[in-house]
Amino acid sequence: MGELSAYRKEIKYVIPLAKIPAVKRCMDHLMARDDYCTEDAYKIRSVYFESINNIDFAQKLAGIDVRKKVRLRTYNGADSLCKLELKQKKRDLQHKQSLILSKEDAKALSKGHYEVLTKYFPNSETAVKAYNIMRLGCYRPVVMIEYDRLAYQYPLYDTRVTLDMGIRSTEANLNIFSSEVNYTPIMCETAVLEIKYSGKCMGFLKDALGQFDLTQNSYSKYCSGRKVYYDFNY
Questions:
Q1: Residue 130 and residue 138: Cα distance in Å, rounded?
Q2: Maximum distance among all alpha carbons in the chain?
Q3: What is the pTM of this model?
Q4: Using CB atoms within 10 A as the burial measure, which of 22, 120, 175, 215 is most buried?
Q5: The CATH number of 3-233 is which of 2.130.10.10, 3.40.50.620, 3.40.50.20, 3.20.100.30?
Q6: CA neighbor of 165 nearest in space, from 193, 196, 184
Q7: Each residue of 188-221: b (16+ CB within 10 Å) or e?
Q8: DSSP secondary structure string, 159-171?
């Protein structure tokens, strides 16, 4: 079925591009790169869905402790399969659920045909939850965001460190399988570094990253990507 579910905590930083080479050298010394990083950074593309009243956007801006995100995601320009992801946050704990969809089902979902998820119901809690959320909230795609990710992994506590660079977005082209997209850069001088883990954060990571004088940040790619909507409504 291709369904995954994980609970974890995340620590996020916004870092200047000038510090990236040093951070990469540090991480390469401490951790292994994940399977997608065969050479260097890989491309992630996400289409975010939002309710008819933009409740998820508003809750993130307001800093509400309990909130959610619904998105489709592809890796390295895949044009046949994609993931449906549901992220629910409760204070400092994140619950991420994902389900692999066919290209046809992903396209149908983007057009508001939520019923395509019912075929996954017998074996997928993610499909049931996403269907109920999207149908009741009249969810539709609102922004597509793409960036280049360098990711590291460490087996204890399912620890990951990700470095997301070149973050760009469009509110015009929402086709996740599109081969030609005109993006607007939304982070030109900075990148996003995240530590993700279940249980507790490894002490050696805190010590290693401490040398870079980073400040924890609640930056949202989703909210930053919706510049047209924000400028018109806020």
A1: 11
A2: 50
A3: 0.95
A4: 120
A5: 3.20.100.30
A6: 193
A7: eebbbbbbbbeeeebeebeebbeeeebeeeebeb
A8: EEEEEEEEEEEES
User: In angstroms, what is the C-alpha Rg of the chain?
Assistant: 18
Mean of the per-residue pLDDT values of the chain: 94
Determine the angle formed by the axes of helices 20-30 and 203-210, rounding to 10 degrees: 150
Query: At residue 91, does pLDDT exceed 90?
Result: no
Q: Would you give the DSSP letter of residue 224?
A: H
Q: Tokens 């260097």, residue?
A: 40
DSSP 216: B
DSSP alpha helices (H): ranges in 14-64?
A: 20-30, 55-62
Q: Are 70 and 85 in contact (CB under 8 A)?
A: yes
pLDDT of 1 higher than 80: no
Residue recorded with tokens 């089902």: 105
* Signed CA dihedral, 131, 135, 136, 139: sign only: positive
Residue 111: exposed, middle, or buried by beta-carbon count in 10 A (0-12, 13-18, 19+)? exposed
Structure tokens at 114: 């939520």
**Contact between residue 114 and residue 141 where contact means Cβ atoms under 8 Å apart:** no
Tell me the two tokens of residue 76: 């390295």
Residue 108's DSSP bridge partners are none
